[in-house]
Known about the structure:
This protein has 5 helices and 14 strands.
Amino acid sequence: MKYTYYGHACFEFDFDGTKVLLDPFITYNPIAKEVKAEDLAPDYIFLTHGHEDHVADMVTVQKKKNATVAAIVETAAWVKNQGVPAEKVIDFNLGGTLNLPFGKVKMVFAAHSNSTPDGSYGGFPVGFVFFVKGKTIYVSGDTALTMEMKLLERYQMDYAFLPIGGHYTMDAEDAVIAAQFIKCKHVVGTHFNSFPPIEIDEVAVEKLFSEADVDLTLPEIGKSYEL
């Protein structure tokens, strides 16, 4: 199994041939110019929330392979309004678990805001926990540090994909605490360097995680990593 990073909070898991894309925002990301949204062909798309910088390329990518899109109920309603067939949309809610051909996915709490590009209410922002082939992977989505993360410790996470850019989400310091809350030693940074408010000092951030004895990957756009 592996994942490929496409910038911001967009990455794609390859679960032994099943491709699962998170939060497609590529075309309007200035640091992802070498990636073409129309080249992506996932089997599933998961949306953590409806902000433009997480859904901008959803329609383009969905059409490529008629992907199934999964999101919280209100964001899923917006997805249907974009012309995605209802039978290709899975709407579920906080605490819900999907049993899919590649594994299980549980929707969990995130502390953020949420609206869709047309300004309508998008429901709660969320994160996801993936249970696949004996590994457990936490994708927090855009979030602040929350005490609710302590509830996830019981899943014994192998990997946690956490925002580290600050300003709109938690910063690296809070992400270290989040990793400690869930007792996860392997963190993949997301939501950083896309635009000035979330630019980071990579050396300082890596030092912060190292001092906390947490392994940090700052993924490169277009590069794939083994899970």
